[in-house]
Amino acid sequence: MMHELLPISVVIPTYNRSASLARTIDAINRQTSKPGEVIVIDAGNEHSYREKIALDWAELNVIIVDSEASVCIQRNKGIVLSKYKWIFLCDDDIELPDDYLTTLFKFVSENLECNAVAGLLLQKEGDKWISQYPPTSGFDLIFRFIFQHSIWGNVESIKARGPLNILLQVLKNNFKKKGNTFTKAGWPSVTQWKGEVWRTSIYSLGANLIRREWLIQSPYDEVLDPGGIGDNYGVALGFPHEKSIYVLSSAYAYHHRDEKNRPEASVIYYRRIMALDYFNQRYRKGISYKLWLIWSLFGNLILFLIRGNAKMLQATIVAMMKIILSKNPYWVGYKSGIRLVSPNY
C-alpha cells in the first residue's frame, strides 16, 4: 500500500557502513508518510545494502550516487541533486520513529516562518538514551561560564548552597536572557530546553528538516576533513537569522554513533577546535572571538592537567599555538583553494 509522499528529499552520506545504513533506510521505509526521494551519496565499496532496494524498499525512491569520501562534499552533492523544497539531512547511523518525518513536515507546514526543524537527538550513554549533557555541578557551570566553554543541557536544575547559589541564579538568568546561541569563544551554548518547541542558533544536523534554499546558500564547507568534524558550525552561521533552528521536544531520533571511520578522540577534539577557529575567522568580525577561544582553551589545559590526559593536553597546546600564530590548517587551505584538509596535532 502506497502512502502519501512528502515533498522531502532525504540526503544520506555514507562510507562503508552498510549495516548501519540499512537500519537507517529501514526506518525511513517505515515512515507513516514516505519522502519523495532518498538520495544516498556513497563513498565506499561496501554495497550489500543495495540488494535491499528492490526487495525491501520498493516503496521508496532510492537514488544512489557515488562520490569521493568527504561528508561535506557528499552532502552538498545530494543537496544539489535533490528536487524537493525540503531536505532531510540524515546521518547513516540514525534511526527514526515511524512518525518522525510526518511530525517535522506538519510543523513546518503550520509554522511558515520555520525553515529548519529537528527533534531531540538521543545518544546512548550506558543503558540510557539521552539528549543533554548539562554541567554536573554548580562549580562546573561557573567554570564553563568563566572560560566560555560549551554547554549542552538545561541549567535550571543546577543548585548550590549559600552565596554560591545566588551566583548561580545570576548566571542562569543570564543564560535565559541570551537564549540558545554561542559563547563568546564561539562554542555552542544550548541551555534552554523547556517547552514543546524551543529555538537555537546551533544544533546537531544529523536528523534535521531544512529548507533546500538555505542549504544552497549555506553549503557544507569542503575544506574540512573527510569526516566533516565541526561542519554544523559553518552551516548554522550561514543561516540568515539568529536562532533559526526549531527543536520539537515531543519528537526524537536515535543516533547509534557507529564508530567505524571515526578518528581517535583527541584528533576529533583538535579538528573541532580548528573548525571553530576557522569559521570564527570566516563569519565573525574582529579578534574578540580568537582571544576568547584561546582563553577557553586555557581552561581546557587546566582540566586536562588535573585529569592527566596527555593526548588532550598536547592537542590543546598545539591548537592554541596554531590559533595564536594564525596557522590554522583549515584557514590556510581555504586561502589556497585546497579541499579536504585533515589537521593532526
| CATH class designation of the largest domain | Alpha Beta
Q: Which runs of at least 5 residues are low in confidence (pLDDT < 50)?
A: none
Amino- and carboxy-terminal Cα gap: 54 Å
Oligomer: single chain
Shape: globular
- Helix coverage percent: 40-55%
CATH architecture of the largest domain, by name, is Alpha-Beta Complex
Q: Determine the mean pLDDT.
A: 95
How much β-strand is present in the residues?
A: 15-25%
Number of helices: 12
Provide the structure class: alpha/beta
Characterization of the model:
Helix content is 40%, strand content 21%. It has 345 residues and is α/β, with parallel strands linked by helices. The chain folds into three domains: 186 residues, Spore Coat Polysaccharide Biosynthesis Protein SpsA, Chain A; 55 residues, no CATH class; 72 residues. The strands form two sheets. Strands 1, 2, 3, 4, 5, 6, 7, 11, 12 and 13 form a ten-stranded mixed sheet that branches. It has a three-stranded mixed sheet with strand order 8-10-9, with no helix packed on it. Strand 1, helix 1 and strand 2 form a beta-alpha-beta unit. The chain is globular and about 60 Å long.
Give me some keywords for this one.
10-stranded mixed sheet, 21% strand, 345 residues, 3 domains, globular, 12 helices, single chain, 40% helix, 3-stranded mixed sheet, Spore Coat Polysaccharide Biosynthesis Protein SpsA, Chain A, alpha/beta
SSE blueprint and pairings:
Layout (H helix, E strand, L loop, with lengths): L4 E10 L3 H12 L4 E9 L9 H4 L6 E5 L4 H11 L4 E5 L3 E2 L4 H11 L5 E10 L2 E3 L7 H9 L4 E2 L10 H16 L2 E2 L5 E3 L6 E4 L6 E5 H6 L13 H7 L7 E11 L9 H19 L4 H20 L2 H15 L4 H8 L9
Parallel strand pairs: 1-2, 1-4, 2-3, 6-13, 8-10
Antiparallel strand pairs: 4-12, 5-13, 6-7, 6-12, 9-10, 11-13
